[in-house]
Amino acid sequence: MKYDIIVIGSGPGGYVAAIRAAQLGKKVAIVERAEAGGVCLNWGCIPTKALLKSAQVYNYCKSSEHYGIELTGEVRPNIEKVVDRSRGVAETMNKGVQFLLKKNNIEMIQGFGKIKAAGRVEVEGTEYEADHIILATGARPREMPFMPIDGEHVISSKQALVLRKLPETMIVVGSGAIGSEFAYFYAAMGVKVTIIEYLPQIMPLEDEEVSKTMERSFRKLRATVLTSTTVKSVKVNAEGKCDVEIEGKKGAETLTADIVLSAVGIKSNIEGIGLEELGIKVERDKIIVDEQYRTNVPGIYAIGDIVPGPALAHVASAEGICCVNNICGVHTAPVDYSTIPSCVFTSPEVASVGMTEQQVKAQGIEYKVGRFPFTASGKATAAGDRDGFVKLIFDMNDKLLGAHMVGLNVTEMLGEPTLAKTLGATAEQIAHTIHSHPTMHEGIMEASEAALGAAIHL
């Protein structure tokens, strides 16, 4: 069978690339060894958000008296039903992707795909031909030798999604988006959580002020946060618990927990797909591509978690569209990696785009900051959730360099500063844009006014 384009992998990079190619009139097939939608839809972004929504509802129930609502009887989570709902949400989205692929006449080839030569892909013993092959094989949780994952005592994010019984204690190693979200979920469910982070701050990619706010937030949940701490080893003791040897600010010590969640990053899925045989260039487990996502072998492309850059679903989708547009001769601007929005769905939420204050300082850029605390927000006060702030960083020409937000629903506010940065909007333009009232996103306008020295509500 001959195709114009074969995409290997059906995650948010792969299926978006396939659909875009079909829209441009190409004959397309997509190869997938597991579920349509990849990790994101089935074992990542989507089911995780379903768990976090259950945690939010549980928290509202526990604090209902604050809102004048009296509940009788004990409010407690049923983890099995919470997990079942999460799996149901993932299944719904999986069916949605299958529908989109079918609607666009994209053939789904089930199995493990391997490039045999330029223009040839083998799937479970059958060969297929294509003028162009796009690799979008994604990534999996990284496993460290001192912390081997057994799926029961030491688990990855995949097992963390489907625990049918809440442990009494859990140690989360790593405080990036994955580690922080699961730490929040289990702490909110009543588990005694300890977060261990090797670097000096949790959420190490975020602005320092954001990290400090989130550390306080975790402590309010009675979670323990240990930064600048190294995990030396994890061993299962005779009682079936995990002994975790660490070295931190207090020196060496051993912590014990029912379960250890390893959230120390991801590993690209590039093994066994034919890279070595074809001489496709790889550096530190990432495939090297140009700005059109072409590898060094003509007709073979790569996008998503397997290429350098942020390992985020929306980045993979953007790369997929850019790649296909270029294949099909449609003019498209390269992906702007300086304006990638990032979200962490803890409570409060974290949202950011652009440079942190630390990065601006390190580059010697003159700058000014506008802040707006949600303690001054009418909407946040009415919602009973005043934690957090908006922080906007501008250069001396008032162009937006970075936006960093912590608070209720701030992930839904991130589009505005992302667009502002993309378009080169100034503090004055943002401040003079009328924002609806009362809303959380008024904080963006207020922070812009603060940067101009014209704050009204502070």
UniProtKB/TrEMBL annotation:
Primary site of residence: cytoplasm
Residue span(s) of domain Pyridine nucleotide-disulphide oxidoreductase dimerisation: 340-447
Binding site for NAD(+): 174-181, 197, 265, 305
Record has Flavoprotein as a keyword: yes
Binding site for FAD: 49, 113
PROSITE patterns: PYRIDINE_REDOX_1
A GO BP annotation: 2-oxoglutarate metabolic process
Entry keywords, A to Z: Cytoplasm, Disulfide bond, FAD, Flavoprotein, NAD, Nucleotide-binding, Oxidoreductase, Redox-active center
E.C. designation(s): 1.8.1.4
A GO-annotated cellular component: cytoplasm
Record-level Gene Ontology MF annotations: dihydrolipoyl dehydrogenase (NADH) activity; flavin adenine dinucleotide binding
Protein name: Dihydrolipoyl dehydrogenase
